[in-house]
What we know:
The complex is a heterodimer. By secondary structure, chain A is an alpha+beta fold. Helices cover 44% and strands 14% of the residues of chain A. In chain A, the strands form 2 sheets. Chain A has a 3-stranded antiparallel beta sheet with strand order 1-3-2. A 3-stranded antiparallel beta sheet of chain A has the order 4-6-5. In chain A, helix 1 packs across helix 3 and helix 5 packs across helix 7. The C terminus of chain A is likely disordered. The chains are: A alpha+beta, B mainly alpha.
Amino acid sequence: MDMKNLVEVLLFASPEPLTQSRFNHILQDENSVELNPIIDELNSDYEKSGKGLKIQTIGGGYQILSQKEYHIYIERLFKHTRKLQLSRPALEALSIIAYRQPVSKMEIESIRGVECGSVVHTLMERELITVKGRGKTAGRPLLFGTTQIFLESFGLEKTTDLPKLKELSELMGDNPDPVLFENDYAAE
Amino acid sequence: MDYQVKVENFEGPMDLLLFFIQRDKLNIYDIPIAKITKEFLDYMKMMDLMNIDLGGEFVYMAALLMKIKAKMLLPVSDDEEDQFEDPRTPLVQRLLEYQQFKKMSKELQETFTEHSFHYPRGQEMVYDKNTKNITNPVQNITLFTISTIFQELIQRLPDVNPYELHEEPIHLDEQIAFLKGEIDSAKHLCFSTLFPFLKTRLRIVVTFMAILEMLRTNQVSIEQDEPFGEIILTGAAA
């Protein structure tokens, strides 16, 4: 059996990212095969033949995705676009959780300066965040972190793939990043 | 009419402060604290006039700003100057941190948008041909639009004419006297013939109780031929 074809078929059939452990499970008794080089091979095949597909590493697995330039046609096919239905407060809270995880509700609130109970609840409902444990500080507060669904929705391999966050000390230096204070209220 | 509107115009006091800093192109590392405190308080007053509840975090921030302002007015002696910490620093740090996350949340949004162009398998097919593109129904509607419309609605409401319903006091004694008068003049009295005089349910009940009371004190005798039949009252003396 051709391993490359098998991996391609599995990726084609799977709506979720295919992980190495899942792949091992599928192969059952056969000798375990590293997915990574096969994926690289498939991707370079696609690239060489100019296919409309590519394989991306998302949330610790591999997922076959359409190329960007065809998105309009797919949207026409399904008659909808994928939009992030999150309010600005929820998005702010989500970014704090994504970068600072595991983080308590109080820490989120101290950064945003407002009460965050309802947005945290929304994010939990949308399964973008989950409780990762309890803090060691007074009251043992719940600590939140992002989920696999978060990685899949944002197309990230792991949370460390998030756009880099500039350290505060760097910002407090002599040359503050001018981009930081671009007028983003202009549109409001 | 007093009404209350609760709207999150700014995402809290930090957002408002950042707005002032950006709008007036202030140096975040050297915030003119008196100016910004005044602006902050003016905004709170304006919101108060509009009956918009800003919440405790705004009050807290106002107090913090005033505390910083007060601290900055205190003279610093020369030997203290080395270890003198600008009272604004903790606030500036918080503002920077918040600003940073605001920026990151935008980048996160962009990350999502970029990824949303790449479709995985397993999309749901919508077969309904009539499905229209759903646009945001509250797009381009500002807080002021909403509050103006609401005010107009309130003004258009018809005035409610307040009137009070007074319960008519009916006394047992009065009804006994009334019945006595009726019986004296007619000797026999059918209870049902009284109904036109008894306009309310309560009056009927009290009158019936008056009959029972008169029966108890032997002022009247009663005949009723069948259940639910006519009650005929006769004066006891007769």
